[in-house]
Amino acid sequence: MEVSAQLNGIRMAPRKVRAVAHLVKRKGVAQALDQLEHTIKRPAPALTKLIASALANAEHAYRMVRDNLYIKDIVVNEGIKLKRFMPKGFGRAALIKKRTSRVTVVLAERVPGLKRA
């Protein structure tokens, strides 16, 4: 069984979030959380919170065992772009795109059907 959680509108560029997301893909949940705790990149706390949310969904709703879960997939897509303007020479204005990300994490079981007592 798979459990997922989603984080919409995180105010970081998807390229930067993907770099951190690839560190924890296909790892166990405990190992991934430990890896993110020691990563000094800016997306690490947001991804930690997202994985913890997916873990809480799995434990609470489906009574899954924490040690049996791993990160099956973590997808970082582009969210909306906030458009801002910067003054330039000769009365012109340059467009600045402040990019956002949508992150989806999917947890799966290593041994299918293992439940908490």
Account of the 3D structure:
The protein has helices at 14-24, 29-37, 44-62; strands at residues 2-10, 69-87, 93-109. The model has no long low-confidence stretch (mean pLDDT 95). The protein has 117 residues and is α+β, with helices and mostly antiparallel strands. Strands 1-3-2 form a three-stranded antiparallel beta sheet, covered by helices on one side. The protein contains three helices and three strands, in the order E-H-H-H-E-E. 33% of the residues lie in helices and 38% in strands. A hairpin with a 5-residue loop joins strand 2 and strand 3 (93-109). Helix 2 (29-37) packs antiparallel against helix 3 (44-62). The longest helix has 19 residues, at 44-62.
Core attributes:
single chain, 117 residues, alpha+beta, 3-stranded antiparallel β-sheet, 3 strands
Please render the helix and strand layout as text.
Layout: E1 2-10, H1 14-24, H2 29-37, H3 44-62, E2 69-87, E3 93-109
Largest sheet: 3 strands, antiparallel
Strand-pairing-aware structural class: alpha+beta
- Ends apart, CA distance between termini: 17 Å
Q: H/E element string?
A: EHHHEE
Kindly state the mean pLDDT as a whole number? 95
Determine the number of helices (DSSP H or I, runs of at least 4 residues): 3
- Using the CA coordinates, give the radius of gyration: 18 Å
**Based on CA inertia axes, which overall geometry fits?**
elongated
Number of strands: 3
The multimeric state of the shown protein is: single chain
- Weakly predicted, low-confidence segments: none
Give helix % range: 25-40%
Going across the biggest sheet, name each strand in turn.
1-3-2
Strand content: 35-45%
